[in-house]
Amino acid sequence: MGAWGTSINGNDTAEDLKQEYTVAFWKFEVPEALRLLDEYVRQDFDESDPEEWVNYYYSLADFMWKKGILTDEVRDKAVAMIDSGFGLDLWEEAGEKTLQSRKKVLAEFREKLLSPQPPKKKIKPNIHAERIFNDGDIIAIELQTAGKLYTKNTVRAMTEDAFHACDGKFVLMQLVECKPSWHSALVPEVGDHWATFRLFDGVYDEPPEAVNVRTLKPAEFICNSKFSPYFYCESSMYYFKHRQARVLGNDVSSLKDLDLDFNSTACVFFGINRPWVNADSELLAAMGKEPLISIYQGFGRVYRELVYDAISYGEYDHRLTKQENRERFYRLTEAIAERALAAEKDGGIILQLTYGGVMAGVLTVREHLLEDLYIQGDLRNHGFGTLLIQNGLSHAGQGAYLDVPVNHAVLIHICEKLGLSANDGAEAGFIRYIWEVKE
């Protein structure tokens, strides 16, 4: 049976039909809704299929009773099915204990159906039934940071004062598409819509009079280790009206060449404001992020945290316990940190790459040797390693070199892309790549 319990709604049929009940009684008067539901259900099964029919009819009667719209006809038919034992033979196959549990549930359900039902309730599906804006619309919305916490300091460094100073200012976005993630099978024109926007980098005191989206810089959300300007949200004008939304123009033609990958599309829910997440933090964290390289000062905890993140990212050994993995990563982190500290004492430097004010990568330069390159796990594959090595080569000068593990395909590719020459000067298992400046 497609059931996971003896309860009235503990089965696939009731679960699948729950939203259809809501849509039907939301859109139509009770008699018409019942007629349409009957026609819809009979496309797949009828009374000749006891298992599916009782799951349908009992869940329908239960839904209607809870909403205060149960008719005498539906009630009497459901009670008659219970009294006749219709469909109970299927529960006998599950054993006597399960059968008795089902009988008890049905007896209690019968008693409920015959009791006074609650007052009639308003029925509305928990969906966004309409699309918002037009594809290509360029929209300004107000930031509302007052009284909220900035929650994304691990993505972009921002003080609470700077966050709160954005209150009442505006950001720009463009609607890419607004489409339903679910359609009602009973009423196809009803669906659950979600809007996808691309966010642009920049905060404005007032919305600009004219906007050319082709000259705007996209913002950068980080989603599934990818950078993307796209986010999706509730298709509800309530949130946008509340944020003083203004349509500044439309450029639907600018959408035709966009590469929209849903797997790298962030989620920004305007209806959520919690101490650990809010829409304003999400939007502002995607802005003002340029990779910057400098010499690391104040060697210590921040360096260790980045190295730990980098070496543990995707390197969990399932043969070890969680504690053993953690201890292994700590040991490796300490060994790397001690090596970097020794290099610094010997006149070397630690280069750091920051992205949005947050440390994203490090590289040690010890005379001509470049070593211990580490990039924050979810920021890999974005050219940060190449930037650090390029900068490290300029510090180390002619004859700078890296000893690269023979199985480190990414680092080998970077060295070859930068034009470094390979030789066999490294120890076994490594390739030495040397920077030879050509005249």
The overall average pLDDT, rounded, is 92
Report the portion of residues in β strands.
15-25%
Helix-strand pattern, N to C?
A: HHHHHHEHEEEEEHEEEEHEHHEEEHEHEE
For the record, give the distance between the C-alpha atoms at the N and C termini, rounded to a whole number. Answer: 78 Å
Total tally of structural domains: 3
Instruction: Please report the total strand number as a whole number.
Output: 17
Radius of gyration: 31 Å
Strand count, sense and closure of the main sheet? 6 strands, mixed
Descriptive notes:
This protein is α+β, with helices and mostly antiparallel strands and 439 residues long. It folds into three domains: 12-114, no CATH class; 137-285, no CATH class; 291-434, Gcn5-related N-acetyltransferase (GNAT) (Aminopeptidase). Helices cover 36% and strands 21% of the residues. The strands form five sheets. Strands 7-1-2-3-6-8 form a six-stranded mixed beta sheet, with no helix packed on it. A four-stranded antiparallel beta sheet has the order 11-12-13-14, sandwiched between helices. Strand 13 and strand 14 (369-375) form a beta hairpin. The mean pLDDT is 92.
Q: Which terms would index this structure?
A:
Aminopeptidase, four-stranded antiparallel β-sheet, alpha+beta, 13 helices, 3 domains
Topology record:
Layout: H1 12-27, H2 30-41, H3 50-67, H4 72-84, H5 89-92, H6 96-114, E1 137-142, H7 160-164, E2 170-183, E3 191-199, E4 221-223, E5 226-228, E6 230-234, H8 237-242, E7 246-250, E8 266-267, E9 273-274, E10 277-278, H9 279-285, E11 291-295, H10 301-312, H11 322-345, E12 349-355, E13 358-366, E14 369-375, H12 384-396, E15 401-405, H13 409-417, E16 421-423, E17 430-434
Parallel strand pairs: 6-8
Antiparallel strand pairs: 1-2, 1-7, 2-3, 3-6, 4-5, 9-10, 11-12, 12-13, 13-14, 15-17, 16-17
